[in-house]
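Lab channel / #folding
Pinned by the channel admin:
"Please post every new chain as: sequence first, then the structure tokens as a reply. Keep commentary short and put observations after the output so the thread stays searchable."

First post following the new format, from NK:
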Amino acid sequence: MKEIQQLIASELSIFEDKFSESVRSRSPLLDRIMRFIIKRKGKQMRPMFVFLSARIAGGTTEQTYRTASLVELLHTATLVHDDVVDDANMRRGFFSINALWKNKVAVLVGDYLLSKGLLLSLDNDDFKILKIVSSAVKAMSEGELLQIEKTRKLDIKEDVYFEIIKNKTASLLAAACSAGAWSAAQNDGTAEMFRQFGEKIGISFQIKDDLFDYGHDNIGKPTGIDIKEKKMTLPLIYTLQQVDAATRKKIIYIVKNQNTDRKKVEEVITIVKQNGGIGYARQKMMDYQTEAMAILQQFPESPERLAMEKLVQYVTERKY
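Reply from TO:
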């Protein structure tokens, strides 16, 4: 990851300044919360995808920096709102906004970030970029609502699962790549290639998250958090398709009614492992990674393309 960051170190440094400027407010409370958010930002993977896509597509422009800021603003807004919806008190090892300032403030902070993103694009006539990213936010909401609807019945099939994660998780990463490429090339075909690339990486990213719940790849003990939250992940969906009717009924009963019983959750995890759920999900993850690489390799070899390939590998090899 450090090697990738070094290649775009100049862009990331300028982006940090521009992002901080973009969230400034005349409200002391908002400014205090914005400083809290900036200090606790994550790995900034989406801005990295924006800058690498732009450089592969033709080169970083002033619009690229606004694109990275827009993507990060909207991503941060969705995280703040998600913590309210999930009643989560922690985010990346720190207290969440709603834990420190309560739900009402957190919702308004999320709205503020959304509005700042919209204005950043509108004030600079970045209409194409705004359309790409706004479409992703719409898809994220649709994916989240579809997951809520299906979780109640636990009747998610594999095609519905992929529809959910394509919208909920992959859409914003796809938009980051597509908008980044557009900011450099101003070409619909190039932007669409990067959208498809980003979507496939986003799907791989979510499957990797699914695998974390089972303690896969020596990352430690399985957590079973997804099972406790009644989330139908790919290893579980595959297993339900493979087992006999009695075992399927048993799994569904545990997920619905005994999901807080640690031993019962571990029993489900064992069944998933014994019936090939882990291996199947991992193979699907690698298939999407291979498809993404094939798109990327249609562009000329360069340091930027090599860095992007390493970022793709990081998505499926990361330990957290």
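NK: The domain at 2-317 is CATH 1.10.600.10 (Farnesyl Diphosphate Synthase).
TO: also worth noting, The chain has 15 helices and two strands.
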